[in-house]
Design brief:
The protein has eleven helices and twelve strands. By secondary structure, it is of the alpha/beta class. The strands form two sheets. Strands 5, 6, 7, 8, 9, 10 and 12 form a seven-stranded mixed sheet that branches. Helix 2 crosses helix 8 and helix 2 crosses helix 9.
Length: 325
């Protein structure tokens, strides 16, 4: 047996042992959770709740990186290009599915370039207006919007965002065209709604419910078939005879494609422990959304959910002819 052969064999063995030790030690440094939307929005809030919970279970700090722009595709591409070692994660909602319909080409593939970890939340949407908006209730809102159409400004967090999809569904259901005002994230859109610069925002309850409860904006309706437990006095839009309008937004957690199974298993376990954490569930419920069950905080559940959203909501945008600028 030659010395070169022995040396090569030892090198391979040492590399294997080093990889195994690294997997066993994971995580041994800070993890970055990319939130591809602006700070201050509902996605940012949700991401920070889960970053705080998961770091307790993983034993390492998780920092949130807000890399916003292009309907979440800039931050998403950043994660797709990162090293698949479990230290860079992506928390994203429906735009991960709808971007495929809006952009002719993306620097990543939402299915092929990511490892799904699991779903994290599920939440309805709320139609809210500036505080001095003329309509005082749902019936008046529907009548005013139909009568004034393009004079009514509809804010949203960017083409393909959850708030854009909600607004698009609302306009379709009411058969009216409003003046759409796109923002780079829900945070800036909500800020202008609070300031009275725009009229209407249809967005996730995590961002809107707290401002409704403090009297800073008015809630017109939940964007679905049922009322919200957090705002039982606010009707569902179906109560005004508006049909075919229901949207629910779910956030999911992803890692780059090729992340090793030992690291994935630890991340999946931390997510499942987090969705079951009473503090996490309480904090989310206070915002009007829910942590999913453990059964949904799994890779296969997120993979199926993504495929369904690509087919349904992506299909909605294709039918409406919506494209990114």
């Amino acid at each position: 047996m030659s010395f070169r052969f022995v040396r090569t064999g030892l090198a391979v063995l040492m590399a294997a042992l080093s990889w195994h030790a690294g997997a066993q030690d994971f995580p041994n440094r800070t993890i970055t959770m990319v939130m591809p939307y602006a700070a201050g929005g509902p996605g940012d809030t949700i991401t920070r709740v889960f970053a705080g919970a998961m770091q307790k279970h993983l034993g390492q700090q998780i920092v949130v990186d807000n890399t916003a722009g292009a309907s979440g595709s800039i931050g998403t591409a950043k994660v797709a290009r990162s090293k698949p070692d479990g230290y860079t994660l992506l928390m994203i909602h429906v735009s991960h599915a709808t971007n495929t319909a809006m952009y002719k080409s993306l620097p990543y593939h939402p299915v092929d370039d990511f490892e799904p970890i699991g779903r994290a939340t599920s939440g309805p949407m709320l139609i809210a207006t500036r505080n001095d908006f003329p309509a005082k209730n749902l019936q008046e809102f529907v009548a005013y919007v139909k009568a004034n159409g393009p004079k009514v400004s509809l804010a949203h967090a960017g083409v393909g965002s959850a708030s854009h999809l909600c607004g698009l569904m609302m306009m379709n259901a009411l058969n009216v065209k409003l003046n759409e005002i796109p923002y780079k994230g829900t945070g800036p859109a909500l800020t202008d709604l609070l300031g009275g610069q725009v009229d209407v925002l249809c967005d996730q309850t995590s961002g809107t419910v707290p401002s409704v409860k403090t009297g800073k904006i008015k809630a017109m309706a939940s964007a679905g078939k049922t009322r919200l437990p957090q705002l039982p006095e606010v009707p569902a839009i179906s109560e005004a005879g508006v049909e075919g309008f229901e949207i629910n937004i779910s956030f999911g957690l992803y890692a780059p494609k090729g992340t090793p199974k030992p690291e994935m298993d630890k991340l999946i376990s931390a997510l499942q422990k987090s969705v079951s954490d009473p503090d996490v569930r309480q904090r989310l419920e206070a915002m009007g959304i829910s942590a999913v069950s453990v059964d949904l905080a799994r890779p296969e559940a997120l993979r199926a959910h993504l495929k369904n959203e690509i087919d349904t909501l992506g299909g909605l945008l294709v039918k409406a002819g919506v494209k990114a600028n």
